[in-house]
Amino acid sequence: MINLVEQSLQHLRLGVFNVLPSTSLDYLSPEDFRLLLNGICNINVTTLVTYTTINDESETTVRINQFKKWFWSVLEKFNAVKRQDLVYFWTSCPTLSASEGGFLPQLLVIIRPADDQHLSTANTYISRLYVPLYSSKTILKLKLKYAIKTKMFGF
C-alpha cells in the first residue's frame, strides 16, 4: 500500500515544505498537526461566545439581551453533533479553524427583524448567521434545528 501512494506522499511533502520551513513541524505531535489541518471538532459554546460578534438589525433593541441569552442557552443545550452541524451550517466547515488570534473567519450573528415564520439562514462565505428575533426561546431552538436540517445556507 505504501508503494502505491509513496510518490503522491512525496509530492505532498514537497508542497508543504515549499510553503513552510522544513523544521516548522518538528515539535508538533500528530494531534497538533491534525488540529492545524482540521480545526477543533468539539465545539465549546464558551469559546463560540468569545469569538462571535452579534449585530442587531431587528429595529427592536428592547429584547436583544434576552435574545442573546436564549441563543447561547440553546447552543449550550445542543449535543456535540448538533453544535458541529450548526457550525457547518454557519461556516460551511464542521470545525472551527484555529489560529493564533482565535478562529478564522470571525463568526458573526445578525439579528434580523422579529419574525416567527422564517428560518435562520447563513452566508457561509463570510460566516454570518442571520437569525430573526424570535418571540420565544422554544421557537428559536425549533427554527435553528429546522434551518440546520434544511441547510438554508451558501449564498
TrEMBL record:
- GO BP: positive regulation of canonical Wnt signaling pathway; protein polyubiquitination
Q: Which Pfam families match?
A: HECT
Q: Which UniProt keywords apply?
A: Ubl conjugation pathway
Domain HECT residues, every copy: 1-155
Q: What is the lineage of its organism?
A: Eukaryota, Metazoa, Spiralia, Gnathifera, Rotifera
How is this protein named in the record? HECT domain-containing protein
* GO MF annotation, one: ubiquitin-ubiquitin ligase activity
GO cellular component terms listed in the entry, alphabetical order: cytoplasm; nucleus
Q: Which InterPro entries match?
A: HECT_dom, Hect_E3_ubiquitin_ligase
Q: What SUPFAM superfamilies does this protein map onto?
A: Hect, E3 ligase catalytic domain
